[in-house]
Design a protein that fits this description.
Blueprint (H helix, E strand, L loop, with lengths): L1 E2 L1 E5 L1 H10 L6 H10 L4 E5 L9 H10 L4 E5 L3 H10 L3 E4 L19 H13 L4 E5 L3 H10 L3 E5 L1 H11 L16 H24 L3 E5 L7 H5 L4 E6 L1 H10 L1 H11 L1 E2 L5
Parallel strand pairs: 2-3, 2-9, 3-4, 4-5, 5-6, 6-7, 7-8, 8-9
Antiparallel strand pairs: 1-10
Helix pairs in contact: 4-5, 6-8, 7-8, 10-11
């Protein structure tokens, strides 16, 4: 069996904690549960606005985690200085907007080319490998390689939204994606196109010598589509695992996802 690496993002445990501004649920307890139940790495995002993960959380997680820590961060200089000092196993550069609910798209590696190049150089000076969270396009793969990243994480948000609009009750809820309000046959076509774009980008990235991860909006219902793309070696999943844990407990939620992210070598 060839196992896909599963990065468990525990940000949403901190979201619950910060909602009441008490130390409950305990982020370190979530860390220990993830470490003991199948996670291959811990993923956290230190946002500029500190809306969930705090500086002290990162320090404690880095100190006590038995697993590699993938620290997501923006290209803000203050944040980069913190990351450089903490020295996580990997830094994943992501875009940020203060007003967004969650990361809405990939890092614009063209508009912010100089800033990203500087960020990668600083992180490399601290001996920290870098991944870029980018949209799944051939151009983004090539630019990521040019900028010096070792890895790319493909933003799967469009794929996830299309899948949900086609295969769930999302269109009938208050959270329907209005931009994707298409007839079912069009949604199906657009979903196939999104999957193909992720596949082609993954293949191209690997040819360039980049490791390939994927994440954003992945859940128990759609993750099987990512498992068909053998170039993807890692998935980072958070919200759906924490949401499932409300009903099953965090241990079982992680175990369920781990089962789904275990594949045969010849799976196509």
């Amino acid at each position: 069996m060839n196992k896909m690496k599963l990065g468990v993002n525990i940000d949403h445990v901190a979201v619950l904690r910060e909602a009441r501004q008490v130390n409950d649920p305990d982020i370190l307890q979530a860390l220990y549960v993830a470490c003991e139940n199948g996670a291959d790495q811990i993923t956290i995002h230190l946002r500029e606005d500190r809306r969930h993960i705090q500086d002290s959380d990162v320090k404690n997680i880095m100190m006590f985690s038995k697993l590699p820590v993938n620290l997501e961060c923006s290209i803000n200089k203050e944040i980069l200085n913190i990351v450089s000092e903490l020295k996580p196993h990997r830094a994943t550069l992501v875009p940020e907007k203060r007003e967004e609910v969650t990361t809405e798209g990939g890092l614009d590696v063209f508009t912010y080319e100089d800033e990203i190049a500087y960020a990668i150089e600083q992180l490399h000076d601290s001996i920290i490998p870098v991944s870029l969270f980018v949209d799944p396009t051939i151009e983004a793969m090539e630019k990521s390689k040019e900028l010096g990243a070792e890895m790319v994480e493909l933003h799967t948000g469009l794929f996830a939204n299309l899948f949900a609009m086609l295969n769930s009750s999302l269109p009938h809820s208050n959270h329907a994606v209005k931009e994707l309000d298409f007839p079912r046959h069009q949604l199906s076509e657009k979903l196939e196109q999104a999957i193909e774009q992720i596949k082609l980008s993954s293949i191209h990235a690997k040819k360039l010598g980049l490791e390939v991860a994927a994440g954003h909006g992945l859940n128990y219902h759609n993750v099987h589509e990512m498992m068909k793309i053998e170039e993807i070696v890692e998935l980072n999943i958070g919200q759906s695992i924490i949401a499932r844990s409300v009903f099953t407990g965090l241990s079982e939620a992680i175990k369920e996802m781990k089962k789904l992210t275990t594949r045969c070598i010849n799976l196509k």
